[in-house]
Amino acid sequence: MRWGGVSLGVLMAALAQQAHAHPERPPAELPTVDVDAPKRSSRPKPQVRREVQSPRAGAPRTAAAVPAAATSAAAPSGAPNVGSGAARPQGMASETVITGEEINARPATRPGEVLEAVPGLIVTQHSGEGKANQYFLRGYNLDHGTDLALFVDGVPVNMRTHAHGQGYADLNWLMPETIGRVDVRKGLYFADEGDFASVGSVHIGLVDSVPKAIAQMTAGSFGYRRFFGMDSVHVGDGHLLIAGEAGRYDGPWTTPDDAKKLNGLMRYSQGTATDGFSITGMAYANRWTSTDQVPERAIASGLLGRYDAVDPTDGGRTNRFALSGRVAGTDEAGSWKANAYVVKSQLDLTNNFTYWLRDPDNGDQFHQHEDRLMLGANASRTLTGSFAGRPMETTFGIQTRYDDIALALSYTKQRDYLSTVRNDKVGEGSVGLYVENTVRWTDWLRTTVGYRGDYYQTHVYSLTNGNNSGDAAAGLGSPKFRMVIGPFEKTEFFLGAGYGMHSNDARGATTTEDPADPANRLASSALLVRTKGAEAGVRTRIIPGLDSSLSIFLLNQDSEILFSGDAGDTSASQPSRRYGFELTHRYRPASWIDIDAELAMTHARFVGSDNDQAAAYAQLVGLTAPPEVLRGNAPGNYIPNAPSMIASAGITLGETTGWFGSLRWRYLGATPLTEDNDFRSTATSVFNGRIGFRDANGWRIQLDVLNLFNTKANQISYGYGSLLRSDQLYQDCYGSAPKGIPAQVCQTGVMDRVLHPIEPLTFRVTVAGTF
Predict the structure, then answer these.
(1) Is the Cβ–Cβ distance between 178 and 361 less than 8 Å?
(2) Could you say which residues of the chain have pLDDT below 70?
(3) Could you give the angle at the alpha carbon of 56 between the alpha carbons of 53 and 62, nearest 5°?
(4) For residue range 382-410, what is the model confidence (pLDDT) as tens digits?
(5) What are the Cα distances from residue 472, in Å, to 203, 426, 503, 510?
(6) Shortest CA distance to 110 belongs to which of 183, 200, 170?
(7) According to the model, what pLDDT value does residue 355 have?
(8) pTM (predicted TM-score)
(9) Which one is the CATH code of 8-770: 3.10.20.600, 3.40.50.2300, 2.40.170.20, 2.40.30.60?
(10) Cα separation of 446 and 484, whole Å?
(11) Which candidate, 181, 252, 107, 253, places its Cα nearest to that of 766?
């Protein structure tokens, strides 16, 4: 095996990045094929390489990119022949592959929204342009990433024990033009998927090279500016890829976001994703002022405009530096791969979600700080063989990770320090071992049986309260099963079942006293939470050009994670159960037209009774709390922000040269905002459009129109208690003539919808050229 003069030992020592997320595949019946695309330039530019799958057997092969004018790098918007190089995988009906061309053909407001190419996934933002997105999938408000595992080039994006929320997954550093492919899995039926992957996982693979250099500039409404460039050159036997961007954005807000971002990527690679290696370095910095969600009553009364802020000093800053690498190879016995990564990140967030509820004099602004070093290494070995004369494949793997974290929470006023709530040092390590065996019993039946074991250990050292220091450890075993029947008349049937897990904030596992009130004793939470689920599905291509799938799923979780408005983070709640279905269609009747449509319906409820909520509500009733305090506080089984319906549809038109266009619609149905369903959000329906022209040399101009019909909808809504100084309850509790209202009533506040509006009609013009 040749590595361009670099020894295998050096490569293993360099480790970094997991090989492209491998979709589930059956025993290798088709060989790996390396196909070179025709050269589009007089200089010897390498082609973009992606790992794709055989339409029938699912064995991965390497295919070259489509012509340069259609690649995500050369034409990162409007390329019509998306998906032509990658067949959909065959592991589960809900599993899919999305190419970089598909991703970049979609108009999007911010980087994370390109993941709305994942069927059934909604990506929103409720607080500034540098904060992690909000994610919705399969009846979950996944907050900033809990239960949706995200990886970029094999490096986990979700952050454990995070200052703002468990599973925090910031993708603002992702440059969409650098995406080569996205592998999507849903459910907990895959042995190599661990923490945060109960609802789904998204593995984003990066391009290794581009046919031509690209330079791109975008300007648009509300001060939007973005400059992007990318190029690759031959170095030795491999390719050196360099990409970077600089951008700023004010938004429509009365207090401008003044977001300023710098981003860079450098990547060296040799070979392919299955037989080669790569080393990738990334650097990113961002700062912004944020307009957070505001109470609906303030807008209705005219106290605030739709784009105003209660506290205009909210905002944040962040940076991220990462080095990763991967190595993979094949031999007569099968294949193997290994990766490692190191990520250094910092985040400072200043938010005020409840206004004057906690502190009637200074306000409720708080500052969350974190400084993290994340290290990890993974390896797996796949052996091909036979069982009872039938093709068989067995994979063994190990995944390790360690996070060294400094976290702090303090109270502030207009970003000035007031007092410390808690300050902690956390070390959290984990190891996951898994094995998975696939047997093709007949031409129409194959089964996969797997098992995964996870062990976590953490040490929390509290700098402010020694009683909240301590050690915690936990382990869980998770069996997995999948079965594929078919194809019959280009139709296959799928069945999956298994156990999974997500980790909780390590501080919750050791905390015994309320950091804000040490006299208040707290029960510690479990470090690991069990999930279990099942799924049945069917995929058919019986109609030429039409790829349709239907999945019916069930998911139970031992503890739900919910957003807490007064703390600005997430906390563990009671068990939950969800069931529903996803229906997806992808139709390509001709080379110049691509149509897709998705519908997801989910029924989500808590299981059992919330005795603590019932007791708190009974206390408020006993204190004769006014209706605006009681509303939404009654116990119930509705899961806040759990969407019952998500839908989307789109059409992309055009060839690789000439005029092109795209129109997309996405719908997020009304959701309960409180457990008793007293407060509900309104449905959000938004259209985005694109039109442009590109020539045969790769030059392109395009116009994106976001929120095409200027819909006055909300990115997200919550339901919780808060206090404004204009509220009668504030005057009764803290005014010049207080009425002796019980503290419990005052500290519950006025229950209301709090919302963050979607941006109004927005125009963005992009000019790009290749060289």
Answers:
(1) no
(2) 1-90, 561-571
(3) 20
(4) 999 999 999 999 999 999 999 999 999 99
(5) 30, 11, 12, 7
(6) 170
(7) 96
(8) 0.88
(9) 2.40.170.20
(10) 5
(11) 107
